[in-house]
Design goal:
single chain, 4-stranded mixed β-sheet, 4 strands
């Protein structure tokens, strides 16, 4: 029987991505990244529901394209990728901080764990307003 689930998911988010820059979890209630985390989770949830996405359990790749006014980037690529990847993984392993404030968005996961990531890419494109595109895909098995 052939696996017919989607193996790549691409979606757009307005604003800036969450950044991972400190020891305090970006999932903590009241964290300064809370609005960005919620926006990313909502966009991922909408895209996953639209396509019937189920979380990937094998190797994945994550692509992030930031659109921003020239000369106005707010963070470096590693903190942007770290924030996006943390938000898109299964959040059950950070449940010790309390995630009830996320409501149903706590269940949004595009893959199980960021240890599955085998490829990362980051690009910037000029734009009048901040936004970004995220693509998560299964890494094809090497034969």
């Amino acid at each position: 029987m052939q696996d017919t689930r989607a193996l790549a998911l691409t979606f757009e988010v307005s604003g800036l991505p969450p950044v991972k820059t400190e020891a305090l979890s970006i999932f903590a209630a009241g964290h300064r990244q809370a609005a960005r985390v919620r926006a990313l989770l909502q966009a991922a949830c909408t895209a996953a529901q639209r396509t019937g996405w189920t979380p990937l359990d094998g190797p994945v790749e994550v692509d992030l394209t930031l659109r921003c006014p020239p000369g106005h980037r707010t963070s470096d690529a590693s903190t942007l990728l770290g924030g996006v990847c943390a938000v898109l993984q299964d959040k059950k392993r950070v449940a010790n901080i309390g995630l009830a404030h996320l409501g149903v968005l706590v269940d949004v996961a595009l893959y199980g764990d960021d240890r599955q990531i085998r490829r990362l890419s980051y690009a910037e494109e000029p734009a009048e307003d901040f936004s970004y595109q995220v693509r998560v895909a299964a890494v094809p098995a090497v034969v």
